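Contributing new records

If you add data, match the layout below exactly. Sequence lines come first and carry their own label; structure lines follow with theirs. Keep one chain per record. Anything else will be rejected by the validation script.
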Amino acid sequence: MRSMIDAFTGDVPRPDDFLLAWPRTLSEIRIGYARISTGSQVLDRQLDALNAAGCRRIFADTKSGRTDQRPELKACHIFLQPGDTLVVPALDRYVRSLKDLMNMVGELRQREIGFTSLREPLDTTTPGGRLVFHVFAALAEFIRELIVQDTNEGLAAAKARGRTGGRPTVATAEIIRAARDMLPNPENSIESIAKLLGVSVGTLYNHIPDLRELRASRIPAQLPAATA
């Protein structure tokens, strides 16, 4: 059961990892990333903030974060080198969830790349900034454990009522909410989600009108291994 929950919620770095100093050697090179999500928005304010923060180069996407078409973010991650610091104007310009933040910043940490958000502000190159991320990571782990606990309790309650399997006649609000949370994860197929939740694939399509959009919103791994 725990492995299935891991597949849907994803692992996040251990909170203690974010207390470690990184990068161990700073290059003093700051690289910016900006994003606008609608055609009516402009990048000027974000670019001004990143330039004022001393970014040597800035990558910018002009498409919504609900799609996986963020080529400049991928290019930015590839461009970053150990010792550099990635700077974003705000967390919502970079990630869509706490889990994404922990995973993506965790990968930056593994590559010895710092991370700074100007609005919040968060800065992993400072002890105070790392402490904030430590708190965030602990919160993400706590939420994940609650999901596991709630799922296990739900299964136990269903078993106590004599329900050991089969598909429910009605897709409850809880089932639909769980499915919507799982759909953006590229590791989950629609069939596996339906099977875990005990409903048919057709039920998911019938109760989630924007199912295809949710599938399209998944963002693949953004941080390929650094090349020599």
